[in-house]
Write a structure and sequence with these properties.
232 residues; Rossmann fold
């Protein structure tokens, strides 16, 4: 189920909603065995398995306890070499992982290695977002930085899009401010309640103005996050 906006998730709602919507829209791009790189709590497992073209879901993550997740991955790796053979995976997802990688090129290169020719990788990464998962939060990549990384790793047909534009970015930053700025709890509660309809309005306007043509992004553009599909 897609996340719903409440006063309790105003800081992270848009990011979660954008990824869920993107995956739902592009679910048909996945097939066969799907590798979830950095699977965490495996929040997308059920949605992925609802696709009749998917035969198996494989959750891949670092050793237990690295980020405090309760779920157990199907396969663990050391962050250097995925324990999978070359050209063995049909499709993969890489959601909200690259910002936590000291060397994102290594992860992208490994994803390229294990994917079969023609295999697709769906991914996301935040652009305008708070520090999270600290101290393992290392960078914010631009669309052009991502284009360069995936291209150098060997991927072709690289398609990127911003998760939102000015209005969504404003709403997300306001939600983060209300949720985390030091203030009396009662004021925070009141602001959170009042902000929900404001955020909904901002998202309504954002949907009518978001530019999803990455090539048209200019010097003054802003986005909450970046989504994309690449093919080996």
């Amino acid at each position: 189920m897609p996340p719903k906006l409440t006063r309790g998730n105003i800081n992270g709602f848009f990011n979660d909603y954008a990824i869920f919507s993107f995956l739902s829209k592009n679910l048909s791009a996945l097939k066969g065995e799907v590798l979830d790189i950095g699977c965490g709590n495996m929040r997308y497992k059920n949605l992925i398995l609802s696709n009749s073209k998917v035969s198996k879901y494989i959750g891949l993550d670092l050793e237990p306890g690295k980020f405090g997740y309760n779920s157990k991955a199907d396969v663990y790796w050391d962050g250097v070499t995925m324990p999978l053979t070359n050209n063995s995976i049909d499709s993969a997802i890489l959601f909200e992982v690259l910002e936590h990688c000291e060397n994102p090129n290594l992860v992208i290169t490994e994803a390229f290695r294990v994917l079969k020719p023609g295999g697709r990788l769906l991914f996301s990464t935040p652009f305008l977002y708070q520090l999270h998962g600290t101290p393992h939060d290392y960078q914010r990549l631009s669309p052009f930085g991502l284009q360069s990384l995936f291209s150098k790793a060997g991927f072709s047909k690289i398609s990127l899009e911003p998760s939102g534009s000015y209005d969504a970015s404003l709403g997300q930053m306001m939600g983060i401010w209300i949720r985390y700025r030091p203030m009396p709890w009662l004021i925070r509660k009141i602001l959170s309640i009042l902000f929900v309809p404001v955020f909904k309005t901002l998202l309504y306007f954002d949907r009518t103005h978001t530019n999803t043509e990455t090539a048209a992004l200019g010097d003054n553009d802003i986005m909450p996050g970046i989504l994309g599909i690449v093919e080996k």
